[in-house]
Amino acid sequence: MKTPKKQRIEIVSVYQFVLTFLFMGLFFSLLFFFLFFTSFWFLSVLYLVWLFLDWDTPDRGGRRFEWVRNWKVWEHFRDYYPIKLVKTAELSPDKNYVLGSHPHGIMCAGSFCNFATESNGFSRQFPGIRPFLAGLAGLFRIPVYRDYLMSCGLCPVSRQSLDFVLSGPQRGQAVVILVGGANESLHGVPGEHCLTLLKRQGFVRLALRHGASLVPVYSFGENEIFTQASFGIGSWQRTLQAAFKKFTGFAPCIFWGRGLLFRWGLLPFPVPITTVVGCPIPVPYRPNPSQEEVDWYHKIYMEALEQMFEEHKESCGVSPSTHLRFI
């Protein structure tokens, strides 16, 4: 049983993550703009100089700090739901990997907890493997927020960035890609297991170009931590969401969780999240893979992901009659 103090600490830890996810980038962008018109204008100028000099760092492996990944706050964040990491096979440190993480959900809580922090001991469970959680490239152009993301081991989900990580001499590099992206977040409805995957082949092509093994990852419970207003395809609401996503790179989901003072709020529901890391799928080294090769390994990956889902769904609280749906 958790003590009241422990529960309060967990709530603060989760709120920290939610508010950072939603508002940190906007806050510092407005702050540096505002400082230009005050006596502290030099702070904005100094940071802009630093930003210019440091512009390419996100595309060159980033700048992680293990002490940030080991913050105590991440353990409380983990315990709130709680979030678990399940290992099903060994990952050899002599190889590189491309992990496809599903589903995206609203805030990728399972993926962030397990791959951007050490709260579940990823480095102990997979010794010699260095994970790089890939995020929207535009986030790494936002003042201060970019530095915060890099400190946790995140990198842009761009070809230049991912090629840099996988082409270096060091083995054991693992890029974690939320394959469904912003489009999949629109399907992050409780009880739904709908993945945007049928036409997403870039991660397979990436794996072939570097001979990196593909690894399916599924976070059961990710879609349950928020309630989302879902609009049918073809409705004017979904059309607006799609248009917004096209121009900004992320989808404006309408979601809510539990509140502290009111019935609704931004605090996620404390639903268990179990992230299952599947068996690696060996992939040959093909600097210029053919479309037939990409199609073949994409098919193998989807079958492996579906099999893993079926094997673990009941132990993770999913109904036996529920199956993955690909779009």
UniProtKB/TrEMBL annotation:
E.C. designation(s): 2.3.1.-
Gene Ontology terms describing biological process: monoacylglycerol biosynthetic process; triglyceride biosynthetic process
Localization: Endoplasmic reticulum membrane
InterPro entries: DAGAT
UniProt keyword annotations, A-Z: Acyltransferase, Endoplasmic reticulum, Lipid biosynthesis, Lipid metabolism, Membrane, Transferase, Transmembrane, Transmembrane helix
MF terms (GO), sorted A to Z: 2-acylglycerol O-acyltransferase activity; diacylglycerol O-acyltransferase activity
Entry protein name: Acyltransferase
Organism for this UniProt entry: Monodelphis domestica
